[in-house]
Amino acid sequence: MSDPFVIVGGDAAGLSAASKHRRENPDREVVVFEKGRWVSYAQCGMPYYVKGEVDSLLDMLSLTPSDAEERGIDLRREHEVVGVDTDASTVSVEGPDGRFEQPYGDLLVATGAQAVSEPIEGHHLGGAFTIHSMDSTAAVRAFLTDPAEPEFAEPNVEYVDTALVEEFLAREPPETAAIVGGGYVGVEMAEAFAAHDLDVHLFQRPEQLLEPFGEPVGERVAETLRENGVTLHLGEAVERIESDGNGDVGGVSSTGGSVDAGLVVVGIGIRPNSGLVANTPVELGESGAIATDRYGETNVDGVYAAGDCAEMRHAVTGSHDWVPLGLTANRAGRAVGQTVAGRPTPVGDIAGTAVVKAFDMECGRTGLVDHDRARDAGFDPLSKTVTAGSRSGYYPGGAETTVTLTADRGSGKLLGGTIAGTDRAAIRIDTVATALENDMTVGELERTDLAYAPPFSPVWDPVLVGAKVLNGALED
Amino acid sequence: MSDPFVIVGGDAAGLSAASKHRRENPDREVVVFEKGRWVSYAQCGMPYYVKGEVDSLLDMLSLTPSDAEERGIDLRREHEVVGVDTDASTVSVEGPDGRFEQPYGDLLVATGAQAVSEPIEGHHLGGAFTIHSMDSTAAVRAFLTDPAEPEFAEPNVEYVDTALVEEFLAREPPETAAIVGGGYVGVEMAEAFAAHDLDVHLFQRPEQLLEPFGEPVGERVAETLRENGVTLHLGEAVERIESDGNGDVGGVSSTGGSVDAGLVVVGIGIRPNSGLVANTPVELGESGAIATDRYGETNVDGVYAAGDCAEMRHAVTGSHDWVPLGLTANRAGRAVGQTVAGRPTPVGDIAGTAVVKAFDMECGRTGLVDHDRARDAGFDPLSKTVTAGSRSGYYPGGAETTVTLTADRGSGKLLGGTIAGTDRAAIRIDTVATALENDMTVGELERTDLAYAPPFSPVWDPVLVGAKVLNGALED
């Protein structure tokens, strides 16, 4: 096969595929088209860069353009793929020198996702941001920087939108920040802004923060945010971002009233960038993301999709689902790189395992948490919530850990779980995720030989306490 | 059945069985004979009591005698069961008022284990201890107490051997402690003694600390102990505990020389207390512990064994094995209590999952770690060790985490794993334990959807990095 392996998108999935493919098959050409200046940046690190815990944007690149070059990847930044012709096996590319057609032997669509912000009026005002690109993140950090101490901002980092960063660096930092949306981004940005002593207002249309984590976790996170001085506006839908009259944000108006704010962050979700294949035979799934098989291949031979633009098989439901997360993108990209190199490798299932930090509260979730979703998948869900110590009761430093497990009444099959607590809570969700991957029943989980030592876990780990109580309820 | 459910031993397994049985079947009499004054004490908490992190011995009782009474358990302390007649279904008991025969309907032997110390000459000298009873632990803590500040010790706690505690409270604290044995007890006591500013010498006959955790963990722990001022005598066998000429310890002599010490702790292992059934038809396993089936029943109908005196089925080998650990005792006891009440409940498998803290180093192990043991079980083991970050590289506070995974070459089946690191390392072993319980291959583990967020884990959790590298080696 003489035509190259062409990859659209130079982030986690795309560059994982490119790197793995080059290692497996050093003779084959790999071309990666990335429409932006940035490649392979750590999306999930951005709130911590704004907070000031990460010094430089460059620290968050997992692969620099020169690393890519060393691996023999032909990486073309500022090249946007604008069309795919699956009959001709070519992509249309717009680059700095104009448009051209690029033939491919195999194609990986790894175009990621984008922040949703359009529904909110005023999202274009100066000082309103989404935290979904390096440029806007750099601008937010610059905005928080006292112009007298400009070293906190990074106007001169390679690849960054220098003009944008300098514009916000020149402004006086805002005193109040409004956050629209109480998901990952909203909760993490609340922590980041509080660290800069801003007056932080968080608006969330539902009554619950972190909806995918379920109510018990949402409540503990709300409590933590309030304890840290964040004003929560739960059950309030933001109607518009208000202008200050000069093209910048002045505040937000919601169904509950209005709040003045000099900085607004919108984090109300993301959607898959699947538009590139919209007019091709490549099929999308119900979620609007690209449908793939267990090797990440679409319905068109030789065309793959991986990462935030693709659906994958869910470990619990067995159906395809869209859960855009970092590990999934890396793992699927790597598997596709290996498969295209001639060694078929499954991309693996997803369980929707996710963890998030809200100040000192560690939260985790995996599998099916919402009962409606569980019923849609054909299960009869029962959940139990327990609060258990993270260490032996007599050992200092333990913390109340809230575990909710959900199972199917008929079969006892474990469907999902959530956890919240301040002492090594989040990472314990991996036990539940591993149980889901293996179709364990709650009874089997209850009998699993987990670790116990006073500094790390009580005799019955909080996850086991959850399994014990849920299994008791199933038996009744 | 009119005769009571009789339980021999009032610790984790015995009282878990008694409590569960009373809840399931409130009408049936449950009699627990405990030879000592203490019941249900947290063996694993003792080093932290000596260290001073736990204030009172009473904090470490998970069930007090009055709790037991409230649950309707007929608990007889200072009653030693000295014989079992399985034909007559009676046990012979020696109590404060003499000897008597007690009929039983069902019998649970939960006699635990005892510290091995006899092989070492001088183990009877004053100031030489094992850390396997509340009395000796209280005495060690009293010994470390400055007689001028006696509130640190607890001579007046109910149930304690007051004379012993007062004897050591009256002495000047020692300046040097020698520890014989580098297993759990040895490593934890090194930390406890160092906290009291003692000069600590630890002797370990093998070259490696924490042998069940394998070499990579042993090395990291040795490094940690040395950094904290502990003098290690690895590869040195202690020949005897030396006398000071007055019936107290003066030091220890080993194959490597001799060290003066005013306090000696021997922690060279424990052995199952299975002697009670030695002259009965109840069969022992190869380990010398009592053989049981999946419900904890012995070969004699109606006679059960659970906890540190019993063997259980190993999740990886499928054979029976003796791994005395706290969760196992609690879980098996609880299951037997339920089974005897008429609801047959499996005791579950063991994977030998264990965690231990050595200063700030967190260590975990599960499954088959030693290659000889893996070969004995019919496997062809291959291990790989990786060192991976515990958090995203750019996020502060991460730590190098050492993961070793072992698999069978032929099948790719995961056999075991170990972990060491200072940031949430130990608890991650639960992921590997859950994988073992489900007979996962390394490839399946590699594709498991584990948690990722910069403060808690890199994109690829250290366990996944281990699986990726081992799976790569298996494929080569």
UniProtKB/TrEMBL annotation, chains A, B:
InterPro entries: FAD-bd_OxRdtase, FAD/NAD-bd_sf, FAD/NAD-binding_dom, FAD/NAD-linked_Rdtase_dimer_sf, Pyr_nucl-diS_OxRdtase_dimer. It holds the Pfam family Pyr_redox_dim. It comes from the Archaea. Residues 355-458 form the Pyridine nucleotide-disulphide oxidoreductase dimerisation domain. Keywords: FAD, Flavoprotein, Oxidoreductase, Redox-active center. Residues 5-317 form the FAD/NAD(P)-binding domain. Its cofactor is FAD. One of its GO terms (molecular function) is oxidoreductase activity. Belongs to the class-III pyridine nucleotide-disulfide oxidoreductase family. This is NADPH-dependent 2,4-dienoyl-CoA reductase, sulfur reductase.
